[in-house]
Amino acid sequence: MKNKEVWKPIFGYEDLYEISNYGRVKSIERLVKSNNNNFRLQKESIRKPTVNNRGYFSIRLCKNGKYKAQFIHRLVAIAFIDNPNNLPEVNHKDEDKKNNRVENLEWCTRKYNMNYGTVKDKIIGIYVPPNVKKKSKYTTSELYELRLEKARKDAKLAEHISHK
For the residues 124-132, what does the mean pLDDT come to? Predict the structure, then answer.
């Protein structure tokens, strides 16, 4: 059985925008003031998000003439997931930053979010945006070994300094 799409107002933008449990944003039909101080009817429409340089979907929302970028996954979590412990971050359970469905998201601590998932990729410490095709002279495993070697040298240096 397929889940039905449910819409809820976006916190701070009630009567302007709604977010769905699928991670879609819509602008609510309303009267808006144009440049010549007349009002026009802005019809309801699904907004198209953009992908930032780290691979997350975001959307620009406007209120009182001021625009602010918001992450889609945070909007979904705020609207649909209780956060009784006031946890600060939202984790993508399947590690797909573009999968913003409510069942794929969870509130978590910074530490949990940083340690979640593919530890090997995170140890390498090199982020390449998904839309960039980069050729490297090193394989992933070679980068991993280089990073570990650097960490060992750093630890040895720190130990040497602390004994002086």
Answer: 56
- Whether 110 is covered by a domain: the verdict is no
Indicate the pTM of the whole model.
Answer: 0.70
User: What residues have CB less than 8 Å from 58, skipping those under 6 apart?
Assistant: 49, 50, 51, 52, 69, 70, 71, 72
* Cα–Cα distance measured from residue 81 to residue 35, given in angstroms and rounded to the nearest whole number: 38
Q: Would residue 149 count as lying in a domain?
A: yes
Any domain includes 54: no
Q: Which domain holds residue 128?
A: 118-164
Three-state SS for 91-109 is EECCCCCCCCCHHHEEEEC
- SS3 of the chain: helix, strand, coil, percent, to 5: 30, 25, 45
